[in-house]
Amino acid sequence: MRRKLAVLAVAVFSLFGLSVVPAAAAGGDFAPPGCFGERYGTLFGQGVSVSCFPGEGYGYRVIAQCANGSAFWYVAGDFVPYGFGPAVAECAGALLVPARVVAYRVDEI
Q: Where is the signal peptide (predicted)?
């Protein structure tokens, strides 16, 4: 009886955990004010391209939070002056574990 209750508790906990993770990850789908971003697919991965209207400073770059399986890391794009195209960051994975962009942010210089 204890084993059945333990298995039931683990199943409920796992179900709750799976329902919370997509809601937390959805917060990274929006670009900051004055910017617009677009996600795109690459071979075994995903990238994000962000363009911003002129603001304070000289330029900006995008920093993507990447994930594949249980691994998380950050990829920083190159600095781009305002008016000279989008800033790009790409998450690269492997054949069996493709990477995806979980969230991204924009840094201004």
A: 1-25
What's the pTM? 0.69
105, 60 contact by CB (below 8 A) = no
The larger pLDDT score, comparing residue 56 to residue 74, is at 74
DSSP string covering the chain:
-HHHHHHHHHHHHHHHHHHHHHHHHGGGGSPPTTEEEEEEEETTEEEEEEEE---SSSEEEEEEEEEETTEEEEEEPPPEETTS--EEEEEE--SSS--EEEEEEEEE-
**Cβ atoms within 10 A of the Cβ of 24, count?**
10
Distance CA 79, CA 4 (A): 56
Domain spans in the chain, listed from the N-terminal domain onward: 1-29, 31-108
pLDDT at 26 over 60: no
